[in-house]
Amino acid sequence: MAEVKQAKASSKSQSTQPESRSIKLRLHLPAKLRNLELALLVFACGINGVAVVLVQLGALGKVNPEIIWMGGGLAVLAIGLHLVLRLVAPQADPFILPLATLLNGIGIAEIYRLDLASGASGWQAFSIRQIAWTAIAIAVSIGVVLVVKNHRVLQRYRYLAMLVGIVLLLLPMLPVIGQEQFGARLWIKLGFFSFQPGEIAKIALAVFFAGYLVEARDSLALVGKRILGMQLPRVRDFGPILLIWVAAMAVLIVQRDLGTSLLYFGLFLVMLYVATGRVGWIVFGLLLFVGGAVLASQFFSYVGARFHGWLDAFNSDVYDAVGGSYQLVQGLFGLANGGLIGTGLGQGRPSIVPLAESDYIVASLGEELGLAGLFAIFALYLLFVSRGIRIGIAGQDDFGRLLGMGLSFVIALQIFIVVGGVTRLIPLTGLTTPFLAAGGSSLVANWIIVALLLRLSDTVRHQPRLVVTP
Amino acid sequence: MSELTLLVLRFGFLAILWIFVFAVVYALRTDLFGARVRKVPAVTSAPPEISQPQKQKPLKREIATSENTNRLVITSGAKQGLEIPLGEEPLTIGRSADSGLIIRDDYTSTHHARLFLWGQDWAIQDLDSTNGTFLDETRVGVPTAVPLNTPVRIGTTTFELRR
Q: Could you tell me if A380 lies within 8 Å of chain B, comparing CB atoms?
């Protein structure tokens, strides 16, 4: 069989002298993508190791190899995922895994730094638990890559995904296992094991929204009257958006969490917009949400308190009040202390802020790495999300497009809500920062998203565009 | 550990973070900024080959470029009327499952032909197929630029590139 090189591999030389060279065919693309991934992954693991060493030098003044060995274990797992990709998904996107690994590792280094400040050790230490959860999360991710051979299988289970998503959202409201922490009812506790099911729900809901919108997009996009240059949908097509709005408001009022409610509603709105291309939906949805949130802040004191603490944060009454703006303002002080280049890993005082290892990990990193470091982290997020959206755009089937878009947007929105809250751009909410913050459920959910995006990107490149059979 | 060493290490860490970011950006530069810049020399050396089909044909037709072409339309054969949107990426044609356009009939080879962007122009390349690829009923030997609305025949299937 003759051999022809792929266009991408040799576009330059081939386009200049197409016929003067011997034609070579490689039936399989070279493992170019995977080699690139391996190189970036080794780089990322190296940075993670350096980060932990710097934390120890800064905080302790000496190097303690124990935790580095544990970090090495994670590097082995990440490379394990890379090897699995080599075997089962050689065309998957090469950037997602190194980016996720680096963010995860920086998070572990900063959590470890906070443990050093609080003197926690063993299973009490957040960093040890975070390392264990990362191991579980990467293992789950490998499992997802192996089990979900084709993302279109998920489309079949869209209504099951809806059920799972709603049940997961409602679980924390159950009397015995539901648990209230820091004013929000988002956790379930089974014995010593606590979990935030809402994180997994975001994946289930993204699958459901994608599956539902593929079916319903035509009636949502094409039917309706034009008013003020916007195409308004028919009244009966408002059903789903109202349902999701009610669910979001229920989360806001019963679970007392503005962030989660904003996250799911925003995810639905954006997927609706991507599926239909109608700006009217976004405008209508935002009006609904803002209206609902403002009403809720009038009638429910804790929502009002959040708004008050946001708008009037530096008022000393608000600062001293229970559930006031102490955390927010301390976080801002920390960021200010970090300045442009930060105090250096292990040399700041990020532990003053309550929940510095989970909700406020961004402020902790901002203090120790400064604006320059924080922007590098945001650039990593930006690259991660842009790869996800790119996978969505390149998708050949509508379900895959919407799913890739939805999964990457949900991460982007979550980062916006968290960072916006910490920097006082929007009211503070209790969401986790993807990959960075201490929290097992969040890690598992985000690594599942990594696995799904890798799977999606592999099928995108493998899929025939059209099959002609006589 | 002296203050100075820590200061140097602090800057060093920020530097490697940014080097990682730029390494990723560099690796996906074609994706972010498009591949056009690298292909400029190709366009200047391409004209002799491109003008070849134009000279042979009495009818001078506009070459399909990445700007003026949006889709590939099947004009005859089993899937007549179907379209494939064309972007920047090459399209492989053949019977094998890893082709972009799979044609399963008795006349098509496993890896039959390839439609790719040659500089700015869409060109068809026959991959040493048994029964040949025909551009406007002329068998394609060397990679040839494809004019708009011109039939390309592979086995029993004919397609055209259209706006």
A: yes
